Structure formats: C-alpha cells, structure tokens
Amino acid sequence: MKLPKFLLADNSEFPEDLFVVHTEYPRFILNVEEEEVEWLDDLEGDDEETMADEATKVVEAAFKWCDEELAKYDDEEEE
Description:
This is 3-hydroxybutyryl-CoA dehydrogenase. Helices cover 39% and strands 20% of the residues.
C-alpha cells in the first residue's frame, strides 16, 4: 500500500490537539498545537549536525503542509 507522506490525525483523548504523522524516514508524529515531535525512527547518520538539519527541515515541511491542508478545509467550508 502506498501512503501519503503526511497524514492529519486527531484523538478524542486529546481534543485540543492536532497531529501530523510523517510516514517516510525519519518517521515521526508532530503535535501541532504543542509543537512537540515524537520520533518513531532513530536518527542515524555520520554527521550529527547534518541529521539535525535534515530533521529540522522535515518538521518545518510538516508544519507548512499542515497549514496548507487546513487552508484547503477553510476554503471548502466557505464554498
């Protein structure tokens, strides 16, 4: 099965929170409201600085994607 790179998720136990699940390496769950990341994969690499930069980039991409997705929902509601 092919999965999208990002998924939106919510949970009734955390009604105020919205989550983004990143399905590709490095996999993680981002709590958008709390701005917290739970890594599902160990970040491996020769250069710690490079890995930290890559991790930052993919988390920033998740926030950007989430903002764009939510804007689409807002646009649909307005129609």
